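Hey, sorry to bother you again with one of my protein questions. There's a protein on my desk that I can't quite get my head around. No rush at all, and the record is pasted right below.
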Amino acid sequence: MDFLQKKLQLCLLMIFCMTVVVSSHSKVYTPPGVPHLTDLFSHVSFEQSFSTSFGGSNVKLFNNGSLANLSLDKESGSGLVSKNKYLYGFFSSAIKLPSGLSPGVVVAFYLSNADVYPHNHDEIDIELLGHDKRNDWVIQTNVYGNGSVSTGREEKFYLWFDPTAQQHYYSIIWNKYHTVFFVDNIPVREFVHNNGFSSVYPSKPMSVHATIWDGSEWATHGGKYPVNYKYAPFVVSFAEMEATGCITSSTPGGVGSSCSKAAPSSVDPVEGQDFVRLSSQQSVAMDWARRKLMFYSYCNDKPRYKVMPPECK
């Protein structure tokens, strides 16, 4: 009897350990401490600084334009686009994702110039991908330089919190030194500008976009789980929007134009020392995020690339 009891306890322990391993990405972690770059800049108004890009009836502004709710339903998704175009800068928003089952739903906060350069556009993406499990989301980061979707450089991460419970910060640094992606001020990825492969680095003026849309064909397990509109509308909240940097021309000739600082700061996101390279604290935090939470990198995708991109070597 004692032997059977011990065996049962051992089996229960093994099942518990397997459960922890399988579901560890949804556990709450305590990330390393880092400087809060999101505290350095003032917020911009959605009402004054953005226009509706699509799905007008699904865009709702509140609190004098400081909060934007975007929704996806059977009729349409929705989106906002900045009135200014930027040649470099710091871009951030506090985002609260839709709760419940959300397979196929894509929430995006990104920079793009596809409207001006349809065949060789630049893009810097934060895409939050809905899941077939309740309140479980994935963050995908991506970079295009003079390319198309076939030349993207995706990396995917689990989050260390429930992104549907409250707002969390998602941020981007883009300058001539590097592009860095942040979640709650933790850097999760750095894409360094290298003259050896400068053609793949975003270099032309881009607009800031905030959107929600139907990504059923690819977003959740390669399109296995489409959007279930039984749970619609899916509503995402954007707040505390920051867009500080080099405001420039929207025309193709704008690459060489001068910058106009809409919100001058002692910490310059274009040239300031705090934005040239990651601090030791930030480097430690990024290592933590990549070890704990990254589950896909294009640099490890040998079936996709016969010859690895140069920055992977």
Remarks:
- The chain has three helices and 16 strands.
